[in-house]
Amino acid sequence: MDELGMAVFSGCSSLARVTFGAACAITEMGESVFAGTALEEVELPAALRTLPAEAFADCPNLVSVSLPASLEDLWTGAFNRCPSLASVTVRGPVPPRLGFYWGSPFSFGEGLPEGFRVVLAGAAAGHEDEYVDAWKYSMVARDATQGPLPPDLEQAGSNAVRAVLGLALVEGPAVEAEELAAEAERPADGAAEPVVEAAGTEPPPAAGTEPPAAPDDRSSAEALPEGD
User: Fold this and answer.
1) Which of 23, 26, 22 lies closest to 9 in space, CA to CA?
2) Terminal alpha carbon distance of the chain
3) Contact criterion met (CB below 8 Å) for 157 and 137
4) What 3 state SS string does 157-226 have?
5) pLDDT (tens digit, 9 = 90+) per residue, 71-121?
6) What are the φ and ψ backbone dihedral angles of 43, each rounded to 5 degrees?
7) Which helix (H) or strand (E) covers residue 153, if one does?
8) Alpha-carbon torsion, ordered 98, 99, 104, 106, to 10 deg
9) pTM
10) Which residues neighbour 97 within 8 Å (Cβ) at sequence distance 6 or greater?
């Protein structure tokens, strides 16, 4: 088995422990897979590639989660409403992508305790700068392919990552959450606006050119043969 389906253990309020063996081949998990359980500590399987949204939502006893070095994608809200969650440990030297919904900055979860931290361990230890550079975009709902962040978003995104890693913040002007969402919805610098032309219309002439001459109706008349 290489996948756990959506909500497969959701609502199992007495489920307090789950163990994945060394040979576990699970690579994918569905949304809400362990939502509403009594899990306290979880070490996810070594082959896992994706952790979806709401994977551990509403787990009041959850204290720690260990993610494998193989993880490639971590979706926003995976730990929603986990009031006891103290830490999520990440082990990969390459930061997993943080999946978010357009216009909404990435969040590890709503309702997390104030002291929640992401711990870089194993091959990830000492790679704080790489994690800040990789994750700052998702923290302000921007895609890295859109190009460099404006200075205010650069600071806001970097500080959001630094805060969750327990690092010192970079000083500068604060950016409100509403500004981040508004900025995320704007096209990137240099992006072209879509052009829609009405069916059956000609595009306007380029600036500085003469409009095309109207057709001469006499040409059709002159082409007619003379009547007998």
Assistant:
1) 26
2) 92
3) yes
4) HHHHHHHHHCCCCCCCCCCCHHHHHHHHHCCCCCCCCCCCCCCCCCCCCCCCCCCCCCCCCHHHHHCCCC
5) 999 999 999 999 999 999 999 999 999 999 988 999 999 999 999 999 999
6) -115, 110
7) helix 151-165
8) -30
9) 0.74
10) 72, 73, 74, 134, 138
